[in-house]
């Protein structure tokens, strides 16, 4: 990573424009994109950790039918909550959601505190989830870096090295923050996720159809 940020991010504006234009046409219509309720968005983000959208969608509806508010979730018995989660796997997640609900009701009047930094104080809310809730619910200019976003930013702005190395991870968080167009976090972060999930995929990126092809570092390295 010897190249400086200004050089690496020289295509930042083209990237932003291309990504937002792509999203306007190809963005996915997902149930949690039709709400700005931070609790509902938190539920979706917790469910989507290591679980496919197709499996999450019906469970998200069922969960919110049963626990429409943090208060309703806080009042429920943990065993019942775990039962509602059944089928999604990785079963620490309902336990954490339940604990977040009880803590929010006990200490924050039943409303999640509206900042990424405050959200990260809850056990079970990491940097990615805090950024996702803050940018999708309150439209704050907070970056996100999940598996899909990491892959896209790595390919477009780095193109070489080990994407799983912790130094690269830190670097990509900085890239994610610097490429975020101020005031457009909702669209931009949604677009990054969709782009990585459907076009710049792990195994079969569709480079010939990609609006980033002219400046994507992976592509430029292959063209040398
Ligand atoms: S050109 Fe290919 S590798 Fe680069 S961002 Fe587009 S799909 Fe991904």
Written description of the protein model:
This protein has two domains: 5-29 and 142-223, Endonuclease Iii, domain 2, CATH 1.10.1670; 37-137, Hypothetical protein, domain 2 (Endonuclease III, domain 1, Orthogonal Bundle), CATH 1.10.340.30. Helices cover 61% and strands 0% of the residues. It has 13 helices and no strands. The longest helix is centred in the middle third of the chain and has 16 residues, at 92-107. The protein is elongated and about 60 Å long.
Instruction: Enumerate the distinct ligands.
Output: iron/sulfur cluster
Low-confidence stretches: none
Please name the CATH topology of the largest domain: Endonuclease Iii, domain 2
How big is the Rg?
Answer: 18 Å
The end-to-end span amounts to 19 Å
Q: What is the name of the CATH architecture of the largest domain? A: Orthogonal Bundle
- Helices and strands, in order, run as HHHHHHHHHHHHH
| CATH homology superfamily name of the largest domain | Helix-hairpin-Helix base-excision DNA repair enzymes (C-terminal)
CATH class of the largest domain: Mainly Alpha
Helical content (DSSP H or I, runs of 4+): 55-70%
Query: Helical segment tally?
Result: 13
Compact overview of the structure:
This protein is mostly helical and 224 residues long.
Key descriptive features of the protein:
224 residues, Endonuclease Iii, domain 2, Endonuclease III, domain 1, 2 domains, 13 helices, 61% helix, binds iron/sulfur cluster
């Amino acid at each position: 990573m010897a190249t400086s940020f200004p050089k690496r991010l020289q295509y930042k504006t083209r990237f932003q424009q291309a990504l937002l234009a792509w999203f306007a046409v190809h963005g996915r219509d997902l149930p949690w994109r039709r709400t700005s309720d931070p609790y509902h968005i938190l539920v979706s983000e917790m469910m989507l950790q290591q679980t496919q959208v197709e499996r999450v969608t019906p469970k998200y509806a069922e969960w919110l039918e049963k626990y429409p508010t943090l208060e309703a979730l806080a009042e429920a018995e943990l065993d019942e909550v775990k039962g509602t989660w059944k089928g999604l796997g990785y079963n620490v997640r309902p336990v954490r959601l339940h604990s977040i609900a009880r803590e929010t009701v006990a200490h924050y009047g039943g409303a999640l505190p509206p900042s990424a930094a405050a959200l990260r104080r809850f056990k079970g809310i990491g940097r990615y989830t805090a950024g996702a809730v803050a940018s999708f619910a309150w439209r704050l200019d907070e970056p996100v870096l999940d598996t899909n976003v990491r892959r896209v930013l790595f390919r477009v702005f780095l193109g070489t090295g080990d994407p799983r190395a912790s130094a690269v991870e830190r670097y990509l968080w900085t890239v994610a923050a610097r490429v975020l167009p101020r005031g457009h976090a909702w669209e931009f972060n949604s677009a990054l996720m969709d782009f990585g999930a459907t076009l710049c995929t792990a195994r079969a990126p569709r480079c010939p159809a990609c609006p980033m092809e002219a400046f994507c570092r992976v592509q430029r390295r292959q063209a040398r």
